[in-house]
Amino acid sequence: MSDPIDRKGLAKRFWERKPLNKLSDKEWEALCDGCGKCCLNKLEDEDSGEVALTRVACRLLDDETCRCAQYPIRHQFVPECIVLKPENLDTHAYWMPQTCAYRLLWQGKPLYDWHPLISGDPDSVHKAGVSVQGWTVSEFETPEEEWEDHIIEEPI
Ligand code: SF4
Ligand code: SF4
């Protein structure tokens, strides 16, 4: 599969040399590994604040490509979908998937070798079994009271 994210012409390992708030838009976008896990529905424990991801996917997620089927106009259908930016990462990092590049860098951790920026292959995230490819269930067909039965272990 060709890479839907333009990662050409970027400085080698730019994420190790610049803080997140100094990245260009292109560098910021290139950090996304394309796993699709941030498009899974989550359950949050009100008391402990713990977040669990479920295999119940957002209605717009295509779990073959692991991409949003309507990204440019998604807010018409899913108004609550966030636009992640360096300025709001502090607010959102706690619920982001544990393998998410934004969360890893926010925590001061390195990226995994399967990240397309390191492997040079957009499919390496799928080959490593880290993406949602082929294993989500529909939120239309899964009532919210059953989401607990679909909690996934992380990192996978
Ligand atoms: S979890 Fe992070 S790396 Fe994966 S698709 Fe979402 S933003 Fe990209
Ligand atoms: S609207 Fe698109 S980007 Fe937002 S959570 Fe759903 S599938 Fe993901």
UniProtKB/TrEMBL annotation:
Pfam families noted in UniProt: CxxCxxCC (PF03692)
What HAMAP family does the record point to? UPF0260 (MF_00676)
The record ties this protein, via NCBIfam families, to: PRK05170.1-5, PRK05170.2-5
Q: Which family does it belong to?
A: Belongs to the UPF0260 family.
- PANTHER family xref list: UPF0260 PROTEIN YCGN (PTHR37421:SF1)
**Name recorded for this polypeptide:** UPF0260 protein TRL7639_01084
Give the organism, scientific name.
Falsiruegeria litorea R37
